[in-house]
Design brief:
The complex is a heterodimer. By secondary structure, chain A is mainly alpha-helical. Helices cover about 60% and strands about 0% of the residues of chain A. The radius of gyration of chain A is 19 Å and the shape is extended. Chain B is built from six helices and four strands. A four-stranded antiparallel β-sheet of chain B has the order 2-1-3-4. In chain B, α4 (about 100-110) packs antiparallel against α5, α4 (about 100-110) packs parallel to α6 and α5 (about 110-130) packs antiparallel against α6. Classes of the chains: A mainly alpha, B alpha+beta.
């Protein structure tokens, strides 16, 4: 029996994926810009919020994106306090880390203390959010 | 059983396991295939090779849950440097943690399954640093699967949540 063909792993996502993902992202951003999630019922809703009436760590992100696209950072922060302070910096940091793996922070971003700190911050923020009604 | 390896982008018949182990150019990252494997893997991921070559500590092959704490302590970690150099071509590359995807699914799918993915992501590097490559790979794979489960659960529940919201408006 002969071995199957060996495909070495490609380091970058295929061009086709980017060609689909980038227009999709632009369309989504356009929808979030033109339609306010707090006024439109057709946006996806959080299952935890619907069933248990809990403010999960992601609740308010869609409204926050809408406010951000209209350059209203304070209102965005009120809709979801974690988006500007935690999620966007993390997404930015990890995207840069993915594109340039030989950076001084690369090893830190994979360590257990870093990941568990993030998890603790997200859980703590959720508890504060629901108890203090921020 | 015949083992195949890839060398200089060419598939080479490496003979039996004994022949393969006798090769001086065999590294944990060397692509290997044998009968019964659905696709190519690396030498470091085949327990028989990894054990014979001494790339792994014995604790890497015991199940994660019922390993007594003292067997982990007894593994000859002190013969190796505590933190392997990630650029070392003799070591398998560190498996991905998928941390960003785990966080994004926790936010977008609002499901506790995302938190399980984050916890598995946090287990990848400690296992890798203890040279327990199989366990690191296992944690990475499980993080990946919990992310997929989160996305699927999010997609399945979305229409029901939408209906409930419409009805309670």
């Amino acid at each position: 029996m002969n071995p199957p063909p060996h495909h070495p792993r490609r380091p970058h996502p295929p061009l086709l994926l980017l060609l689909i993902a980038i227009p999709l992202l632009l369309i989504l951003l356009y929808i979030y810009y033109t339609h306010d999630p707090s006024l439109t019922p057709y946006y996806p809703r959080c299952p935890l919020n619907t069933l248990l009436h809990i403010q999960c760590p992601g609740c308010g992100t869609q409204r926050a994106i809408h406010h951000l696209l209209h350059l209203r950072p304070l209102q965005a922060h009120r809709a979801n306090p974690l988006l500007l302070t935690l999620y966007l910096p993390i997404i930015l940091l990890h995207t840069i880390d993915h594109l340039h793996p030989r950076n001084p922070l690369h090893n830190l971003l994979r360590t257990r203390p870093y990941i568990l700190t993030l998890l603790t911050l997200i859980i703590l923020a959720t508890i504060l959010r629901n108890t203090l009604n921020i | 059983m015949t083992y195949w390896i890839v060398k200089n982008n060419q598939q080479i018949n490496a003979g039996t396991l004994t022949d393969l182990l006798a090769r001086t150019d065999l590294r944990p990252t060397t692509p290997v295939w044998h009968d019964g494997l659905p696709d190519w893997t690396t030498a470091g991921n085949i327990p028989a090779i990894a054990r014979a070559k001494g790339w792994l500590t014995p604790a890497a092959f015991t199940p994660a849950d019922d390993t007594p704490a003292d067997t982990i302590k007894d593994t000859p970690i002190q013969t190796h440097p505590a933190t392997p150099h990630t650029d070392d071509p003799n070591l398998p590359p560190p498996p991905p943690t998928y941390l960003l995807w785990a966080i994004l699914t926790t936010l977008c799918c609002c499901l506790p399954t995302g938190i399980i993915a984050i916890i598995y992501a946090s287990k990848v590097t400690p296992a890798y640093q203890q040279r327990q490559y199989l366990r690191a790979q296992q944690a990475s794979t499980r993080a990946g699967w919990w992310i997929i489960i989160s996305i699927i659960l999010g997609l399945i529940t979305a229409p029901f949540i939408f209906l409930i919201n419409l009805l309670t408006l």
